[in-house]
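Subgroup meeting minutes
Present: P.N., E.W., G.H.
Scribe: E.W.

1. P.N. recapped why we're keeping a running log of single-chain structure predictions: easier to compare across weeks, and new members can see raw inputs and outputs side by side.
2. G.H. added today's entry (287 aa).
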Amino acid sequence: MKHKFWSFRFWLHRSHLYITLGIFLFSFLVIYIPLNTSFFDPVTRAFEDFRLSDLFLRLSDRNSMPESNEIFVVDVTSIRNRKAIAETIAEVAATSPKVIALDINRGPLERARMHIVGHGLKEKIETRLSDGLEKVLPGEVDTMIAAGMGGGLVIKILMEGRTVADALDTMILQPQSEIGKVRRFLNEHRLQIIEENMVEEDGKFYPMMKVIHGEKEEYTVCEYTYGKCLLKQRHPVLKKYLDREMAIKEHVFGQLFKHQNSESAARRMEELKKEIILTQEALKYYE
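Output recorded in log:
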C-alpha cells in the first residue's frame, strides 16, 4: 500500500527522512556559511578583456586571414591591455628588425642557416662567419646578445670589437663563468648594468644582464660576485643559489678540517673562510 505524499507515515520512511534532512542541511550551509569564491577570480580576469569581436574572428573563415612568417619578440610582461600590445608590435614592425647571427665555426653557422631558411626567415636573419664582432661594422647593429659562453670570452669579444661595442645601444650578456670578472670589466669600462635576472634549470643557475653605456659605479666585492641588481631586488633564484653555495662551502670546510695539518688543506680552508664570509654578506640582503 502506497503512502500519500502528505501522510505522516510517508515522512517516517527511512529514505524519505534522509532526503529531507539532507535538504535542510544543505540549505543551512548555503545560508549561514559564507562561500569562498576566490577561485573564480582567474575566470573573471580572463573575461575582463573579452570582446564580441573575439568571437566573430574565431567563427569567421580562417582561410581569409593570411598567415605571416614575420616574428617579433616583444616583452609584454608589463603590458596589460591589447591596445598597448598592438601599439608595441606595430612600433617594432615599423623598424623592419633584422638579426645577424655570428659564429667562428662554419658547421654550427651552416646548421643555423638551414633552420633560418626552413622557417622562411632568410630576409630577416643573416649569418656571418666571424670571430666575435670582427665582421660587424660600427653602427650596423644596435643590440648585441652574447649568451652561453665563458666570461673570459665575453670580455675578449668586447675588447677586440671595441669600436663596434662603443656604437651599440644595448648588450644582453649571459656569461657561464667568471661572472664577477665580467661585472668588474663592464664597470671599469663605463658599461652600466641596468637590469639583471637569474633562472634555474635542471639544478644549474644562469644569471644574465642588460648593459648600456653609462658611468662607473661604486661596487663592493659582494656586488661584483653576486650582482648588485640581483641583491637589491632580493631575487628569489639568487637566494636559492646562495643557500646552496653556503651548504656546499660549509660541507667542504668540514671535510678539510679533518686534514688541517696538510698545507694544501689549510690553504684551501683560508680561501673558503673568505668565500663563506662573502656569501653571508650576500644573504644579509634577504634578512
